[in-house]
Amino acid sequence: MSFESIRTSLQLSIYKVINPFVRMLIKMGLTPNAITTIGLILNLGVAAIFIMGAEKGNRGDLQFVGWAGALVLFAGIFDMLDGQVARLGNMKSTFGAMYDSVLDRYSELFLFLGICYYLISHHYFLSSLFAFIAMIGSMMVSYTRARAEGLGIECKGGFMQRPERVVLIGITALACGISSKYIGSDYKLFVPGISVHVFETMSIFTIPITIMAIMTNITAIKRLLGSKKALDEKDAQAASLKQQSGTAAIVILLLTLSAFTPLTLKAGIDPPADFPVPKNITNQLFYLQRDPNSNTIICQLKLDEDGRPNKKNPVNVYWIRYTEKGQYAQLSYIQRKLAYGISSRQVTTEEFELNFVSYPKYLMTLKKGKDNKYHVYSKVANKNAILNSIYVHIVGGTFWVPNVVYVEFKAIDPATGEKLTERIKV
Question: Which family is it part of (predicted)?
Answer without folding.
Answer: Belongs to the CDP-alcohol phosphatidyltransferase class-I family.
